[in-house]
Amino acid sequence: QSVLTQPPSVSAAPGQKVTISCSGGSSNIGKNYVSWYQQVPGTAPKLLIYEDYKRPSEIPDRFSGSRSGTSATLGITGLQTGDEADYYCATWDNSLRGFIFGSGTGVAVL
Amino acid sequence: QLQLQESGPGLVKPAETLSFNCTVSGGSVSSTRYHWGWIRQPPGKGLEWIGIISDRGITYYNPSLKSRVTISVDASKNQFSLKLSSVTAADTAFYYCARHFYFGPYYHIDVWGKGTAVTVSS
User: Fold this and answer.
1) What residues of chain B, 38 to 97, have a C-beta less than 8 Å from chain A?
2) Minimal-distance CA residue of chain B relative to A95
3) Tens digits of residue pLDDT in B27-68
């Protein structure tokens, strides 16, 4: 059971927006930056968001991130079929002294 | 552009030790800004962080695996390695090596290997 809780799945029609929540605690999200990863089935994960909201240069601005208190959120606007994937939040946990991943959220484009 | 390539056994028997290497190309394992680590993913399940090692050899391990895990670096070969002892079927997974950007104590993973599958079975 993951320390970081995400909804198992979200879905929306093409062009619409989805948000994915990541709920943690005071020793992880409450203290440290959050990153987000996209994993298309059959491939390795890819960095989407780092330091809560920053995007690597190759990631389009349809993807956004935020953090408040002990929760973080990933937003995807203008949903495309290519966005169908699993999405994971992650951060450092000061109590566990380790890096932790969220439980993962599958995004479906209806 | 930095690339990581895992090599692993594919199939091991219960109670044996799993050993992986990750070869780094296009960069150096001796960089002070990056730490090097491993993540695994059991079939149909989520990502599980295993551990990391710094350029100075400092390690952090997942508490649930700590008693069985060793991560090491060989700068002369520009490689880092993972050993997981006393394996069971629960260790069957896809194993990824990954570069972790470090800005103490903050990390994010900016480069992933393609991964290698391991099955534990007699």
Assistant:
1) 39, 46-49, 51-52, 60-63, 96
2) B63
3) 999 988 899 999 999 999 999 999 999 988 999 999 999 999
